[in-house]
Amino acid sequence: ATPTALLVGTGRGAQLGILIKGPEVLESTRRIDTVVLDKTGTVTTGQMSLVDIHVAGGVADEEALRLAGALENASEHPIARAIATAAIDELGDLPDVEDFKNLEGLGVQGVVEGKAVVAGRTALLADWSQQLPAELAEAKAAAEKDGKTAVAVGWDGRARAVLVVADTVKPTSAEAVRKLRALGLEPVLLTGDNAAVAKAIAAEAGIDEVIAEVLPKDKVDVISGLQADGRVVAMVGDGVNDAAALAQADLGLAMGTGTDVAIEASDLTLVRGDLLAAVDAIRLARRTLGTIK
Ligand code: ADP
Ligand code: MG
After folding, report:
1. Which family does the record claim for this protein (predicted)?
2. Are 250 and 31 in contact (CB under 8 A)?
3. 32-62: per-residue pLDDT in tens?
4. What's the complex ipTM?
5. 38 noted as active-site residue
6. Which fold has domain 49-166?
7. Residue 180, φ and ψ in degrees, nearest 5
8. Distance from residue 252's CA to the centre of ligand 1 (Å)
């Protein structure tokens, strides 16, 4: 490789808003055939908002929002921010939380107003032997079919509410997915979210292959699994959750709008916060390699 060509590549990269960690990175783009895309914050904006509250058993909406809001106010997760912000807007000050625990990729738990409260995936409630009553299960299914995330909330040993949180697909994601395909790359959506939500979001972005309900610690195994199948994998992500997977991928691309941990673990940083920057990065890398050959 001639150093000049590599320098041109990285210089042009900077112009396009792509920061390349080292010239050797370009080499790995040659054989990439699969691009794994994290859902939240990568394909979607990650700016979630609370759009609906469903309650069961005579619980008031306000109580569900107050208890869940207090709990989520202790978490940085985009879902938590949406619920806590809505609760503060609606109710003002929220009660204190004791014994708070963040359960990675599942939800949160703690004691609020003397009640043991849990909020998150239904799997989390199942651990507490709590089951969604029929009316809440229906609300959850309807929300998920629509690509929205249903957060189950339980306290005092019972599932009592479902809070519906919506994210939006970035306006450029579908175009970027088309362009990845045109480059001969197969896009795959990877998420910890429910399979129904993931499928709805994938359909909106034009992605056929979906890997859902993956715990944060297992994302890295999904990447090595694809590699074991003979695929050469680029991964685009933004979260703390994505760091190990970004490092495992043959090429890791971090959203510049994402967390420092993700940026550090990756080979490329996309300063622009959209997927078209990933397309530009792969194109640029290939073109630069072309001039070296
Ligand atoms: P993603 O892969 O989309 O970035 P995560 O792995 O962070 O998502 O979370 C997976 C799922 O766990 C979420 O879709 C949500 O259902 C649940 N979850 C995680 N954290 C929270 C939280 N603080 N409150 C409610 N639900 C949560
Ligand atoms: Mg994420």
Report:
1. Belongs to the cation transport ATPase (P-type) (TC 3.A.3) family. Type IB subfamily.
2. yes
3. 999 999 998 899 998 899 999 999 999 999 9
4. 0.94
5. yes
6. Calcium-transporting ATPase, cytoplasmic domain N (3.40.1110)
7. -60, -45
8. 22
